[in-house]
Design brief:
Layout (H helix, E strand, L loop, with lengths): L5 H15 L10 H23 L2 H15 L10 H6 L7 H25 L1
């Protein structure tokens, strides 16, 4: 999706650079961490809208349906976003980790709010 939307690609690059700057010298409660998380959430929402507009969300859902049909019931398929974040193979600073966690929570809340508004 980013390859076909230069504005989204540019914002992704900017956010990645800003997140990379959240090194060990930045405190987790620094106001820049929260502001960056808000910006990341807004970007993810814009990216999500572009994905839906292109119909890629339906194609992705079909892939998951096929995958789910192949499961034998032995696999643990449930994992919270917070748990998934802790399993990431990155050595993030505490500030960057807080930014990722906060952005994920904000994105989840924004998706839930959008779903409620659509209902």
């Amino acid at each position: 999706m980013l390859a076909t939307h230069p504005d989204l690609r540019a914002e992704e690059d900017r956010l990645e650079a800003a997140e990379a700057a959240l090194d060990d010298g930045v405190e987790p409660d620094d106001p820049r961490v929260e502001e960056l998380a808000v910006q990341r959430c807004a970007h993810q929402m814009a990216l999500n809208k572009a994905i839906e507009a292109a119909g890629l969300d339906a194609a992705e859902e079909k892939i998951f349906e096929i995958y789910d049909a192949d499961l034998k019931g032995e696999e643990d398929t449930q994992m919270s976003a917070a748990t998934a974040i802790t399993k990431m193979p990155y050595d993030f600073s505490p500030a960057r980790m807080r930014c990722v966690e906060l952005a994920g929570r904000l994105f989840g809340e924004a998706l839930a709010d959008a779903h409620c508004a659509d209902s």
